[in-house]
Amino acid sequence: MTLHRALFYEPGHFHAALTLRTPNPRLAPDIHVYATPGPEREDFLTLVESFNTRADKPTHWQLHLHEGAQLLQRLVKDGHGDFVVLAGRNATKLETIAHLTQAGLHVLADKPWLTDSQQLPSLAQVTTGPRLALDLMTGRHSTRAQLIAQVVHTPELFGTFVLHEGTEPAIDIASVHHLYKRVNGRPLQRPAWYYDTTVQGDGVVDVQSHMVEQAQWWVLGEAGGDGARDIVLDTARCWTTPVPLDLFHDSTGLDAYPEVLQPAVRDGVLQYACNSEIRYRLRGISVRQTAEWRQREPEGAGDLHRLTIRGSRCQVLIRQDEDTGYKATLHLTPAPGVALEPLLHTVLAQWQERFPGLTYEPSALGVRLQLPPALEPGHESQFALVLKAFLDHLDCGAWPEALRARIRMRYTLLARARDLALREGTAA
Questions:
Q1: Domains and CATH numbers, the chain
Q2: For 120-129, what is each residue's pLDDT tens digit?
């Protein structure tokens, strides 16, 4: 078994640390961190240390810190690892990925990879070279998401995607996140640059990357594609969430808006361009994606998701709100004349090996599919699963061209959507 050696470069987002949340026998315990001293590095170290010191299944990572000038060049020259994890400032992310892959290192990088269309040449470069560059897409590692894909890819149950000229899309994805939230049981402290859309990226390019990846999964499966041929962009818009000074303080620890954010301050309140809606067609299948950021996370809420996938035999629905106790519920609504329960009795028996304990029951929306809680350990556990999948690719030694193609497609779509929102006057 190959023992891989991980490097972390400027881990400015908590997603970097979450890749180390669980032990990994294919990863050497010595972790080299190249980072500028400051709150972002300290948050990373604190979170990893909490994994090492917890009572239940602690990790045993040994962190080695490197600081000073020319950190990126030193990381490459030192040769302490074979791959790099990136999660932080997004405006320079593609440039950094290109530098690392050209130097012979593989890269696992958090989304989004770009903040505007000027970075697209680097996207083509990093997805065509010999080194693996993979984005940190957690969606496919949720058991519920895998179940949804199983339903959609079972024609006798789902049918085919509904195609029509109405306003309701075949795939309608929406999510709500919160600027002030808890991660690993404690309030999340965000760096001030998080609120700078020139660094973090605006709402069109951020959370939307996950939604595009999900739509690709449902429509394309494991196939690749060509964005110029397979995607038609229809509309894109972006809007703001007000961030009063008390919320800014609670989420960053700062008492005032930095000078760099002043252009976005209106009447003493920061207007953060973090929300968006994109409508497009993927191989003729209509998709609407809506990403919304609210101010503070309700007690017990977490991120909220809503989904409708319209098939000719049934609709797939995710509902998660105050009415569901902020727990995501998965339903199938049959099309007129379709009896779902006999079909479910047959397919669930076939799916038990993959989804042990999966059951169904009647609901107001049709039929509710229920997974045992043990199969859904939570979003934070999925980052280590992405790392595992990344190492699987490294051990195979061959980077699927279809995977590269899907990465190019999704970030090209987001860059084009942002350009469209700018032309329409709805982007920062």
A1: 6-139+381-396 (3.40.50.720), 141-377 (3.30.360.10)
A2: 999 999 998 8
